[in-house]
Amino acid sequence: MTFRRFARKYLVGIIAILVSVVVFLVPFIFVVLQAAKDPKEAGLMGFTLPSTWQVGQNFFEVIQTNNYQLLAAFINSFILTIVSVVIMVVFSAMVGYLLQRKRSKLNHVANFFVLAGLIVPPAVVPTIWVLQGLGIFDTLPGMILIEATLGLSFSILLFRAFVATIPRELDEAAVIDGAGPMRLFFRVILPLLRPVVITVVVVQAVAVFNDFTGPLYFLPSSDNPTVQLTLYNYQSQSVSQYNLLFMSILLITIPPLIMYIFFNRQIVAGMTSGAVKG
Amino acid sequence: MTTTAVRIDPANPTKAPGRSRGDKRRGVRSPYPSWFYIPAGVLYLVFFALPTFSSFYFALTRWTLFSQQFIGLGNFVQFFQTPALTQGFINTLIYGFLTSAAKVVLGLALALLLTSPIFGRGYLRAVVFFPVLVSTVGVGLTFKSLLDPFHGVVNSVLGFFHLPQPGWYTDPHLALLTVAGVDIWKGVGIATLIFMAGIVAIPSEYFEAARVDGAGSWNVFRNVTLPLVRPAMATVIILSLIGGLRSFDLIWAMTNGGPGFSSDVIASVIYKQYQAGFFGLSTAGNVILFIVVTAIMVPVQWLLNRREAEL
Description:
- The complex is a heterodimer.
- Chain A has helices spanning 2-35, 39-43, 55-101, 106-119, 124-134, 140-163, 168-176, 181-192, 194-210, 213-218, 227-237, 242-275.
- Chain A is mostly helical.
- The two termini of chain A are 41 Å apart.
- In chain B, a hairpin with a 4-residue loop joins β1 (61-63) and β2.
- Chain B has helices at residues 20-25, 38-58, 74-81, 83-115, 121-133, 136-146, 153-160, 175-200, 204-212, 217-228, 230-246, 249-254, 266-275, 279-310; strands at 61-63, 68-70.
- Chains A and B meet through α1, α3, α4, α5 and α6 of A and α2, α5, α6, α8 and α11 of B.
């Protein structure tokens, strides 16, 4: 019995680790190796160590390509991500809070819209038509509003599930102490929503930062590149420079990686509290 | 939701709380003002609902954004008469159901593994989830190199063992399945995470009771874990089906819908028609995608929720 338990714990674990190395780590090691090679070696696409490591050189070269386009793309992507996620968090927390607290006829309508927002695929060309009507097509503000809108439904679901865990007595205490609705929400409720705010921020920031389809449709000109678009255009332009292509893949993977390392636990906790009840 | 919670009227604390209409009459604001719906509602209506509703009209037109000409169902007729577009329709269904089914099975298996006390669990959990965070375009381009039919790492290894070396994304019969495989690789982490949460939430007494009754591992899984993990399974099925039916970016990054039209899905057809300037046709594709997704998701959701309620 003890031997069996030992075998199960270690043998299965070791096999799983070996499989995971092949299945999950090899692709990442491949990216890193490719990013460190010279163009000729990278073009061979082999899983070999580079004969000369030129990480620094590739890094500076990829940054300087097309007049520092990748740098501009990083700045745009950061602005897009930060602003749209802030909008998403505040607006959807307000809705999630109301859906959970207030019993009104509007709730059915709002719940229906939330569900529809999750299921219905966005109609792209009519969205372009709306953006053009407002004069914000192909601009960063337009893209921000689109990303914020598309993230609302999922965020509302997470917030709605979490607000239920905050006792109503707190609201009542705050009201007795003379807090208005705004103070009650922004000073009392929102700080208590911190765990789920972190989850929403991480999940949506990664989604917006990694979004490719949105910018492809709504930021078509090269005036406002995002990192995903830059990467995509890069591969169609310079076929021979695989080392630089993989260096850009590596670079745009770093921000989500940092987020993951910092918030690993919170993502898991928040996703589980929201997604399963969702 | 608690129905017994008491809302105290600050102006008149001894009185039992009335309906909000009563409060309003006395000029007392509810602590839950309805205008909290407005910011999100405006965004939703302008950038989501309005395009969605207008798409039903624009799908019936020949449209250039500047001029539109009503042509009835012409776009839809054209859509279903062109073999390339029909192919996209079928591919969407294959892709959606295949990726979703694989994520359910693999996700559940991985979750069972990662919730059992095995060696290296923390590392395994991290590594399975990590691809979820990586850019889809980056993943697509990486696998395009790894699966390259001539120098790719995968085919080199297969060649070393004298195994057949398929043209993963250059063979029309294989391209869609290859992209689906990469999609599963990238997305299985989310499914695993949701299943893990579901398994951890099962009270351990159930497992102990089953063991005391002499149930083996298979019976415990079959009769305890599987039924109780159903809410998590519903979430996984719904999320992965929605994602799979709508997916575009991985396909576009890896094959552009090719070779030929063999890996086109509705979403990539929509993009191609948009690129070619056929905005009406593109929007008709959107309406078809809307109908497909809704026609599949509404019964699926109803079925899954009903079963959940029976438990």
